[in-house]
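Team,

Forwarding the record for the chain on the shared tracking sheet. I've put the sequence and predicted structure together so nobody has to dig through attachments.
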Amino acid sequence: MYDEFLITIIGGGVVGLAIAAELSQYYHNVLLVEKNDTFGLETSSRNSEVIHAGIHYPPHFLKTILCVTGKYLLYELCEQKGIPYNKMGKLIVATSDEEEEHLQKLKDEAAEKGVGDLVLLTQKEIKLREPGVKGKAALFSPSTGIIDSHKLMRFFLSQAEERGAIVSFRSEVTGIERRNSNYLVEINKGEYRFFSRIVVNSSGLQADRIAAFTGLDVNKLGLRIRYCKGNYFSLSGMRRFNHLIYPVAKGEKEGLGIHVTIDLGGRVRLGPDVEYVDSIDYAVDERKKGHFYQAVKVFLPEIKIDHLNPDMSGIRPKLYGPGEKVRDFVIRDEKENGYPGFINLVGIESPGLTSCMAIGKYVASIVNEILN
């Protein structure tokens, strides 16, 4: 006889943990499995830790809707539970007439998405906020901030376990088979097998591979993950920054451009860039230093190339390749493709951290529909 669970969540990153915390409020017999030794060792711990405002994606995208909702949920949680954060805001800096015109368009479009707090700044106002930044104009986003993602994930883990969820590390899913109204899930190549009524695939970089275990044709369904590496360089020897500093995204479909990120300890980094790779490798190539320097010197005139040092990298699980049309999050029950009760979350990249609590609630609504 196999053990039986009502809901199994695959993946212990910030999104999987947020889902576990949310679902364990309403349901007993919830299991979360994670292949690594602990939580959040991949995409969730290798990013800028930014709470985004919800400016840059189309208004109908889940990325926009869940980001705008999710930032308020996160800030409220941080206040209530003492999770460290800093709503420092960000500047999107225009360095040409063309970019300045684009700022007004960004502001108008953001308002239509529910982000109505953006403020246009003049050159003088930029200098008052950031003396080391050069620009013709800027867009100030006061609701953008940073968060201690590790403490956030630890909170979700503790909350899920307190509500009765079981969390199992070093438990890699190596097979999934549909059996009547359940799924037979295999762990560590047969070390353990169990039944689950619902399976939530929140496995990040492995989401397409996990989905394929069921028999879903991930290529035909457009669920194939593309590894998109983002490198960071630390920045030292410069004056202190008060805000996150972004360029005007010049049609970058894969990212928002190399920008200034700050963590809660005051450490400053430049990044991430966009580098599609075939395998997961977190080494940072020091030869990229020149590219990073050239990318930011237009709005950071005081920077010198010696201020940059290789720091870290992360991998984004994207659903589109270089130059291809931007894709939205995929979050759905695969009943229409013959696998009811298998909930896919694929392509959960930025703004996944900002959206994590909203994603948890969205998945809970899908689960409620399945079970009721």
